[in-house]
Amino acid sequence: MEQRLNILVVHGPNLNLLGQRDRDKYGSLTLGEINEQIRLHAAQLGVEVAFFQSNHEGALIDYFQLETSRAADGVLLNPGALIRYAYSFRQALVDLGKPVMEVHMSDIAKTGVNKQINVLDDVRVGQVCGLKEQSYYEGLQQLVAYILQQRA
Ligand SMILES: O=C1C[C@@](O)(C(=O)O)C[C@@H](O)[C@@H]1O
């Protein structure tokens, strides 16, 4: 039997507070509720998901260096504001060498600081922004389609 795709779902700094943050930008669901919805979407797509969140760049790097992470097929990633300065985080993703789909709930072209820099510009295979929690579901679908197309 063919092995199911295994996708890491990784949330960066401050995303643990979803549900309490600006609802106009991020919607009203908590991170736990979003992860549950991602799990349902993953089941429909026939893929496995593993979740991780940290407020710390080093902890995220440690997670990407785990043997279990290195065995995954791709990363669905909301990096938060790390995209604006976190070059060690970027390097960990380069070293991981798996397709990365970048998602943001808000429209990052309109909000946040240091908008001219995104350290993932040359790392990600795609980006979905501005759809609140739907960014994750759409991003997962696009990531799985990308991986399957690469293997066809
Ligand atoms: O924490 C976040 C959340 C975010 O990544 C988003 O999902 O819209 C956008 C970032 O600018 C911000 O720092």
UniProtKB/TrEMBL annotation:
Record keywords: Amino-acid biosynthesis, Aromatic amino acid biosynthesis, Lyase
Residue stretches in coiled coil: none
Matches recorded under InterPro entries: DHquinase_II (IPR001874), DHquinase_II_CS (IPR018509), DHquinase_II_sf (IPR036441)
GO terms classed as biological process: amino acid biosynthetic process; aromatic amino acid family biosynthetic process; chorismate biosynthetic process; quinate catabolic process
Membrane-crossing residue ranges in chain numbering: none
Enzyme class at the top of the EC tree: lyase
Residues involved in substrate binding: 78, 105-106
Record-listed E.C. numbers: 4.2.1.10
Catalytic reactions of this protein: 3-dehydroquinate = 3-dehydroshikimate + H2O
UniProt cross-references to PROSITE patterns, sorted A to Z: DEHYDROQUINASE_II
Keyword Cell division included in the entry's annotation: no
SUPFAM superfamilies, per database record: Type II 3-dehydroquinate dehydratase (SSF52304)
The keyword Electron transport appears for this protein: no
GO molecular function, one term: 3-dehydroquinate dehydratase activity
Residues annotated as the enzyme's active site: 26 (proton acceptor), 104 (proton donor)
Pathway: Metabolic intermediate biosynthesis; chorismate biosynthesis; chorismate from D-erythrose 4-phosphate and phosphoenolpyruvate: step 3/7
Site positions for Transition state stabilizer: 21
Subunit field text: Homododecamer.
Family named by the database record: Belongs to the type-II 3-dehydroquinase family.
NCBIfam families: PRK05395.1-4
HAMAP family with a match to the protein in the record: AroQ (MF_00169)
Described function: Catalyzes a trans-dehydration via an enolate intermediate.
The protein's name: 3-dehydroquinate dehydratase
